[in-house]
From TrEMBL:
Keywords: ATP-binding, Hydrolase, Magnesium, Nucleotide-binding. Residues 240-380 form the AAA+ ATPase domain. It catalyses: ATP + H2O = ADP + phosphate + H(+). Residues 443-466 are annotated as: Disordered. Signal peptide: none annotated. Gene3D superfamilies: 6.10.280.40, P-loop containing nucleotide triphosphate hydrolases. This is AAA+ ATPase domain-containing protein. Its cofactor is Mg(2+). InterPro entries: AAA+_ATPase, AAA_N_dom, At3g28540-like_C, ATPase_AAA_core, ATPase_AAA_CS, Mitochondrial_chaperone_BCS1, P-loop_NTPase.
Length: 466
């Protein structure tokens, strides 16, 4: 907060200037004009808005202070300096603050106290500075930094870089993965409020993921290579992003895989709902406002928007679609994934999921766009052993042999296997859980055999009448 002496000094300078102007008027103008000018000034100063304008003008004219604004959004993109400054100011000691804000976001965590002040004073190498959060009429937020012009080079060359780097370090230390989802454009205020988020607390990991160990290690190795690949991507002239296509039947762990990837990398997740986006322009604004070190997810992409229609039909209607901008198009999505806009932001992963690979346009999932295709299929014996360890803390059992034999004959998702292994009332009964699973597997085996026989009869019937 600006010191009281500085404030009075500014007011005194402004008043001295006004008296000087009035003295000049008295010396130059004749009496009848003096009276008119005096009446005009008195009536004007009775109006608050005019008085404020005059005050601001003379304050700015004679003030020894300099302001720097750091907007939250700059040219449709997040200003990372704003976020770093916010983190830095939140970390300042609260023992001297008179206005605090208390919150308890988790029931088992303690109360967190933060500053709740519009203006915050800071000191750097003997120079005083004042930070103020400013909200414009269009709801755009910015931090305003005020300091004396004598410290200009110290503040701009040393203090501001120090604050930004310190904020980034603090944020990295207490980084909490967050899950974002896009708001409908009707709720946007310019480029603000496009995303809303919550803390991401899914416990999934590659260790607990029901998948063959060899495949898990291949995915983890690919993710690690990507995060360490900044110089490599620059060398080969490609945007630092990577695409993953997860496909397979429902319940095979596609969403769990995304959670495991986010926890493994400590990346934020942006769950993009395409049906809430009106056109390609909105899509571009949304995607360019995502942060680096993030996973952009489009789940069930075959159901999101019409990206699966006949390619010839799309090309025929593309001019009309672009003209009225009524929907997101395939070209609009591809432009972000692999076009010019793909370079807006660093260290991003794009993930598509689908239950029906055959429905997707080949252009959408070709290698280079979706760099790694990962099939998540029905439960194998190796995947079952991981689930048994997760749910029953069991490495081996005499009934495993029976389960292994049944899994070779039938198709069942890991989600269905897990449901049968889940203990009741949190009391582990290994034999009961495994027998429940065997019973479910045998029922599924009989059901699939009946379905196969029925399909065979229909096929023979059509052949007979054909």
């Amino acid at each position: 907060m600006m010191m009281m002496g500085d404030t009075f000094g500014t007011i005194g300078s402004s008043m001295a200037s006004l008296f000087f102007i009035w003295a000049t008027v008295q010396q130059i103008f004749p009496n009848h004009l003096k009276i008119a000018i005096k009446e005009f000034l008195l009536s004007s100063f009775q109006q608050l808005c005019f008085a404020q304008r005059v005050s601001d003008y003379f304050t700015n004219l004679f003030s020894p202070y300099v302001d720097i604004n750091f907007p939250e959004i700059d040219e449709y993109r997040l200003n990372h300096a704003f976020s770093a400054i916010e983190t830095y100011l939140e970390s300042k000691a609260t023992d001297k603050s008179k206005h605090l804000k208390g919150s308890q976001l988790k029931e088992n965590k303690g109360l967190v106290l933060k500053r709740d002040e519009v203006k915050i004073r800071d000191e750097y190498k003997g120079a005083n500075v004042w930070w103020e959060i400013v909200t414009a009429s269009d709801e755009e937020r910015s931090y305003k930094l005020t300091f004396h012009h004598r410290a200009r080079s110290l503040i701009t060359d040393s203090y501001v870089p120090y604050v930004v780097e310190e904020g980034k370090l603090i944020k990295a230390k207490k980084q909490q993965t967050r899950l974002f989802t896009n708001n409908p454009s009707s709720q946007w205020i310019l480029s603000h409020n496009m995303w809303r988020s919550i803390e991401f607390e899914h416990p999934a990991s590659f260790e607990t993921l029901a998948m063959e160990q060899e495949k898990k290690e291949e995915i983890m190795s690919d993710l690690t290579a990507f995060t360490n690949g900044k110089d490599y991507y620059k060398k080969i002239g490609k945007a630092w992003k990577r695409g993953y296509l997860l496909y397979g039947p429902p319940g095979t762990g596609k969403s769990t895989m995304i959670s495991a990837m986010a926890n493994f990398l400590n990346y934020n997740i942006y769950d993009l709902e395409l049906t809430a986006i009106k056109n390609n322009s909105e899509l571009r604004k949304l995607l360019t406002s995502t942060s680096s070190k993030s996973i952009v997810v489009i789940e069930d992409i075959d159901c999101s928007v019409d990206l699966t229609a006949n390619r010839t039909k799309k090309e025929r209607n593309s001019i009309e679609q672009d003209k009225d901008e009524s929907s997101v198009t395939l070209s609009g999505l591809l432009n972000f994934i692999d076009g010019i806009w793909s370079a807006c932001g660093q260290e991003r992963i794009v993930v598509f999921t689908t239950n029906h690979l055959e429905k997707l346009d080949p252009a959408l999932i070709r290698r280079g766009r979706m760099d790694m295709h990962i099939e998540l299929s029905y439960c194998t014996y190796e995947a079952f052993k991981i689930l048994a360890k997760n749910y029953l803390d069991l490495d081996d059992h005499p009934l495993f042999k029976n389960i292994k034999s049944l899994l070779k004959e039938i198709e069942i998702s890991p989600a269905d296997v897990a449901e049968n292994l889940m203990t009741r009332n949190h009391i582990i009964d290994v034999d009961e859980s495994l027998n429940n699973l065997i019973k479910a597997l045998e029922e599924k085996k009989n059901s699939q055999r009946s379905q196969h026989d029925e399909d065979k009869k229909k096929s023979n019937k059509f052949r007979l009448f054909g």
